[in-house]
Write a structure and sequence with these properties.
5-stranded antiparallel sheet; Pnp Oxidase, Chain A; 4 helices; 208 residues; globular; alpha+beta; single chain
């Protein structure tokens, strides 16, 4: 269960996981079990799981060893609390890719899932923080991931976009935060998922 504090339509710097309360201090997470925020809110595990399974794009934030940030949209599939993002055949810029060189230098990453609408009362986001690594699965695991990708993204039926020997980013997330302008992110996320299923959601740029 993810817990977070919302005050007057904005998120504070407090994040709670199942086991402890943490405070963001200078960009790092510091434990502070004595903190008692005024108003905790939560996302049901089932809603969070459904979101990461169906949402088509996330923004991946990485940093280099010396702290230079890099953000890029990605596609992904999920298994429990691990996400797999393919380094696929879509047009890329730079060799090696900055996201890959960054996670080799600094494995700490953040993923942002969000939606933008003209009605700002329906705005929401979920951020997942974790560690990433460059991953080359064995043949059995690669086949499982490919099946998930094909089910989620029919574009991969063009096999030039999904060669059999590609690399992945393997992202294991361990904590997160969320926000909604309405103060009820769970409701906003469930509405967004329904609209996505009906094909009535506004377009978001697909990941690279």
């Amino acid at each position: 269960m993810l817990y977070f504090l919302v005050r007057s339509g904005r998120t504070s710097d407090w994040v709670r996981s199942e086991s402890h309360t943490s405070r963001v201090t200078g960009g790092w997470i510091a434990d502070d079990d004595n903190t008692q925020p005024n108003r905790w809110m939560k996302i049901n595990d089932t809603v969070l799981r459904k979101l990461v399974n169906v949402w088509p794009v996330a923004r991946l934030a990485t940093t280099s060893e010396i702290g230079i940030p890099h953000v890029v949209p990605i596609v992904f599939v999920v298994e429990a609390t691990v996400l797999y993002s393919p380094i696929d055949g879509k047009l890329k810029r730079g060799t090696p890719l900055k996201r890959l060189s960054n996670v080799v230098e600094n494995s700490r990453v953040s993923l942002l899932l969000d939606d933008y609408l003209d009605d700002w009362q329906r705005l929401w986001w979920v951020r997942l923080d974790g560690k990433a690594k460059v991953y080359v699965p064995d043949a059995i695991k690669a086949s499982d991931i490919e099946k998930q990708l094909l089910q989620k993204y029919p574009q991969y039926e063009d096999r030039t976009l999904l060669p059999h020997d590609i690399q992945y980013l393997r992202i294991a997330w361990h904590q997160g935060a969320a926000w909604a302008q309405s103060g009820d992110p769970e409701d906003m996320i469930q509405r967004a998922i329904k609209l996505l299923g009906k094909g009535r959601r506004g377009g978001s740029s697909q990941g690279g």
